[in-house]
Amino acid sequence: MGGQKFQYDESGGTFFYFLLSFLALLLIPGTYYWWPRKIKQVTVLNECHCGDCKKKKLLLQSNEPWKGTKQLFIKLLIISGWMILILLAYKVSQFDYEYANFDPYEILGVPLGSSQADIKKSYRKLSLILHPDKETGNEKAFMKLTKAYQALTDDEARRNWEKYGNPDGPGAMSFGIALPSWIVEKENSVWVLGLYALVFMVALPTVVGMWWYKSIRYSGDQVLLDTTQMYYYFFHKTPSMALKRVIMILAASLEFEKKHNGEIVERSTDNEEVPHLIKQIPNLSEKNRERPLCFTYSIKARALLHAHLNRIPLNPETLDKDRQYIVKKCPYLIQEMVNCVSQLILLAYARRILRLPNIETIENCMKLCPMIVQGMWEYKSPLLQLPHITEENLKYFSSKKRHIKSIQQFVQLTHAERRHILRNLSDEQYEDVMNVVSKMPHIDFQVRSEVIDDENPTVYTAGAIVTVTVTLVRYTLSVVLGEDTLSDAIKPQDTSNFSKGDEEEEDDKKEELVNAKKPVWQKQQKKGKKGGKKNTKNQKPVGRTVAAKKSEDKSSNVAETAPSKQEVSKKAAPDTGDESEGSEDDADHSDDDENQHSQGERTSADDDDTEWEKLQRRLSKREKALEGKRKQSHSVHCPSFPEDKQEYWWVYISDRKSRTLLTSPYHVTALVHEEEVQLRFTAPRWPGVYTFTVCLRSDSYLGFDQTHDIKLDVKEAPEVPTAHPQWDMLDDEEEEPEADGSDVSEFTTDEDVEDEQD
């Protein structure tokens, strides 16, 4: 067997193989991820043509001026890469073909076993034609011809060819190093070592160090860790925090300071414009001496947030640009504030901190997010979220017959009534209003509570882990409008993102009741003693439509005409009128046995089906958890927000009577059509009937929050058997409850509330 042979070849096939594989590894995933795609996303911004939406559309286009050029450059780069890959593949294929089809007899055009004279004669004849100095010359073919001539004129090489098919003999292994020859040449060694040192000792450590330094400063949601620590400090210091205080903490975020964020722009004109803006805003608390609430950047950010909520016009070249940047960062910072407060509440339950943050604090944080997205205060009318609706237009929504306060009430009106209310708007403006309304969310909010992996999942014992499954199905308010009340100008909902089954479900839901409940945490309006009853008679009930009444009538008719179980069993029984009574009894007993047997089989089959469905649900939940959280749902109509905002929700459970939070708020970020959320909490330690509230809050719209009350009849937990000696030791180690009544439940039962009222 021949020795090993190493070759460093710049033009050889091995280096081309390396280039081909390396380029393929870059191009295949790069084309999949970086090829520009036109995502057909139907946004509310495209449906509305109001002045604010037009300004926002121009703003979004100006934020990415080189987007088209960048996409064109990426396409050209990918296409050129694929062309180079095809050329390399063709070159390698030709290279392999030449080496695989090297036959010296065929190249010289002589038969196998020809004499030396015939070989030399053929070589002279072909060399006169293929020599590079001739007009018909071919350098590559001439080199191949010379190699074939040398292989046949050398006796040893000819014998090797005829015997082994290789002029070099048997077993000669050739290793081609996938490097160009200039890398291993002696005169280039200094430059090669310098390049290696520059890349691996300077550039790579610098890049890794910069990435590491940046990553340790931010949390998973790209919020500065120093900002998170500041949130923890203030929320622990002030357990019950008002809404304006939350705005002060938000404005003090270190993302708005030049030292911590290089994107912040400090202008000389701020010394004149910011004090002038502060004079226009009452109760800004700019004289607060707390650090960092008293810092200049914090006061400026606070003034800009108040100007945003009051919709005060700002200088488009200076302060308005700063406002856009601050407002754009607020949803992420508010989500971090919600996480901080929920963590503090959980730490308080675990007895690690003394002060328990109030539930109003975390709800004020959640409430602030839709306020900033829509650019309005919470006490303002939710109707101001619609295009072309101003404070002057609100007077048309109130009359002697009706008093429209919410968008849901406005939707329940007929087309003629809505057009009469908006009579001061043109047809184009009215079309914009209805287009935006038809895209707003209508959430079907279903709640189910159980104790999973228990013999009786609906029996709640003290200290049990209660699982509350919240099912959210999103529809648009066009479902409430109905086909008979839709104007011709309104386009139907775009269902390109939904399947056929989803469309059928949405058609079925068009006759369902619209639940427009008012949140529990909002104070109900006081009614007069005299006029209260009259208004309740004349005013339409909130959340009821004509379609809902029809559906209720249909359900009542079905309930009346539906046969009972006894009638069905009588009809299903065989006709034995001519037989005796004894035979009838025997037949009845046999039928009962058969029915019991068939019912047992059905119940077992039903149990298997339910177990299979539960298994499928668990597997699907695990797959979703592995996929990670998506942050793509539906676009929000928010002209005051400088970016395209996606529609997110918070779901959590609270005890409104004891004003405590039972579960951490779950952030729903991918509610395209349906989403299922599981919330778990520990049942109270004392038996009784408890009422808890499942809350659904929007981070994008005002007036779209919902609540659902669940009642838990908590039973006393069964005694644990103490037959095992280890259990006896554990029971001895347990501490007895104190006699002064300090070991009481943190929840409030319905009986306690009734006793307090008595």
Automatic annotation (TrEMBL):
Transmembrane stretches, start-end: 15-35, 72-90, 190-213
Listed Pfam families: DnaJ (PF00226), Sec63 (PF02889)
InterPro entries referenced in this protein's UniProt entry, alphabetically: C2_domain_sf (IPR035892), DnaJ_domain (IPR001623), Ig_E-set (IPR014756), J_dom_sf (IPR036869), Sec63-dom (IPR004179)
Keywords in alphabetical order: Chaperone, Endoplasmic reticulum, Membrane, Protein transport, Transmembrane, Transmembrane helix, Transport
UniProt feature, compositional bias: Basic and acidic residues: 595-605
Gene Ontology biological process terms from the UniProt entry: post-translational protein targeting to endoplasmic reticulum membrane; SRP-dependent cotranslational protein targeting to membrane
Localization, UniProt: Endoplasmic reticulum membrane
All residue ranges annotated as the J domain in the record: 103-165
PANTHER family cross-referenced by the UniProt entry: SEC63 DOMAIN-CONTAINING, TRANSLOCATION PROTEIN SEC63 HOMOLOG
Protein name: Translocation protein SEC63-like protein
